[in-house]
Amino acid sequence: MNEETTLDFASAQAIITTENVELHASELHGVITGLVCGGYAFESNDYLAMINDLFNNGEGLPAKVKTLVKLMFSDVWTNILDDSYSFQIMLPDDDDSIAERSNAIGVWVQGFNLGFGLQQKNNAVLSEDVKEVLSDFAEIANLSDEVEEDEATEQAYYEIAEYARISALLCFTELGVPPEQKNSQETLH
């Protein structure tokens, strides 16, 4: 995440683990990003119920995890709307093993496709670019967990992570509903 953000993978995963919720922080971030990039309205507030149904068998999420989800939702919106393209996908630090980071990118794209699909389930009209992103994300999610600890794997990981980040921004550009647009439309009478 960028320097202004205090929400990072390690702290998010620590909260989830401490609260005994079986969930990966990257997957949660992917689902929220997929919802936002698929056109989820900033003003809507049923995302907590959706997350609850998806990840906790419909049982109530612990208060700390609900707070984390709200922070993550706010963080995604803040960063995806930033003109300097500060949006980053939530992944483990470079200090973590390449296997762990590769797994995280896989669950992030799975989460993105899930959140995007939930938001776009009634919209059959997607551009070829967006269809290609969703297809690529499905392939990334199915990459092998067997990775070599070498420079080529590191390079591939960074390229895939950057592709996922830019692709999310592309989806948001095409389908996202920035809050400013809605407000400006309402006041243009």
What does this structure look like?
The protein is an all-alpha fold and 189 residues long. It has a single domain, classed as YgfB uncharacterised protein family PF03695 (Four Helix Bundle (Hemerythrin (Met), subunit A), Up-down Bundle). Helix content is 65%, strand content 0%. The longest helix has 25 residues. It is globular. The N and C termini lie far apart (39 Å). The N terminus and C terminus are likely disordered.
CATH homologous superfamily placement: YgfB uncharacterised protein family PF03695
Task: Bin the helical content.
Answer: 55-70%
Number of domains: 1
Give the name of the CATH architecture: Up-down Bundle
**Strand segment tally:** 0
User: How would you classify the helix and strand content by structural class?
Assistant: mainly alpha
The string of secondary-structure elements, in order, is HHHHHHHH
